[in-house]
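The protein record passed on for reference:
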Amino acid sequence: MADPRELLARLSAQTVRFDTGLGGGGGGLANIDIAHALGCVPSGLGREVVECCFLDTEVRPSAKLRMQVLGAVLSEWRKQEEQLSVAKVELSFHQAMAVFSRTVSPDLRRLIDRAQADLDNARAQCWPRDAATMVAPITLAALQEIAGSSACDACHGYPMVPCTRCGGAGYVSWSDRTRANAICRSQSAYRDAWSGMYNWILALLRDAEQDAIKHMARALSTREVA
């Protein structure tokens, strides 16, 4: 069966017709079958991503998609801030114990060092303070990356074992330079400040897209058999 992503291009506003088959080895599927398969995708982020990335030549996220991404981002951001706050309190508590007891035992020193390491790690995981200004450009860039992804030329999108080129993803990701250009930041700024947030949003969208494609593939398989 053809990739559902490729089949969706037949439903663009410029070319859609529901009374014709695919032709050229399309397995007897008609455009109405593709539309039916898309309709089998549950409403949610996955369907929004698929429609945004594969139904038109231009990536234009809907208001619903933007709000769903924003909601997920705010939840993750809140989680990061909570983890940072807890780490700060833990370190302050152990430091206060040292001041109160006027001595630092080996056990207390280990607790302080561990709390400091936890705080450093929590800070490293946090997005920049001005992350809110980058949600829109990063989301658009991530959607464009998904829309323009090509199958890995080593495993052809079906890795039977971990692929050394794509890491088992089945597709080739954008380079850091391409991502930096897409969000209008320097390559060093992308790596130092924005790569974590970019990868998080990309993973959110990728997971949703792949789940939606699985629903479509099942629906299309049923139509092919029929």
